[in-house]
Amino acid sequence: MKALIAARKIKVCPVVTQQTEHGTQILLFRHPLAGIQLVKGTLEPDDASILTAAVRELAEEAGITAVEQLQYLGQWQSRHQDQLWHFVHCHCPSLPQQWVHHCLDDGGHDFEFFWQPLNTAIIGDSHPVFQRAVEYIRSVLL
Fold first, then answer.
1. Is 118 in a helix, a strand, or coil?
2. Where is each Nudix hydrolase domain found (predicted)?
């Protein structure tokens, strides 16, 4: 039982970026109840690895199924509910500038996806843990 509880605190965060003439942009989404976030989920017992969990989370939360390349970026102590986050950089070709994906989490929600420059703080309402997560990602990728 203790191992199961500990496993629920391991989170996987697939990081999707794109290059533009203005620099690197990161994929974010607006949760209708919880503000602006990164795609993130719990490492499940059936996941073969952190990398496969990242691919699963992208499909579930963003509807992204085409992932061409994965790169593990490291782990990060979130200081939020004792969660340990694992970041995976995911190369996903030809994504639109914005879209809405209906996610089945928590009874179903429409998540509004968009791109934001990685070198700026999250614009809009977001939990401080996501602000800190983007700072960590920025320190690794830029």
1. coil
2. 6-141
Per-residue pLDDT, 1 = 36
The total number of structural domains that make up the chain: 1
Query: Which domain CATH number covers 109?
Result: 3.90.79.10
Q: Reduced to 3 DSSP states, what percent helix, strand and coil does the chain have, rounded to the nearest 5?
A: 25, 40, 35
Express each pLDDT in 58-81 by its tens digit. 999 999 999 999 999 999 999 889
Regarding pTM above 0.85, the answer is: yes
Cα dihedral 39, 137, 47, 36 in deg (nearest 10): -10
What's the CA gap between 4 and 44, in Å, rounded? 10
Which structure tokens are listed for 83? Answer: 């969660």
Short-list 120, 113, 95, CA closest to 24: 120
pLDDT, residue 4, reads 45
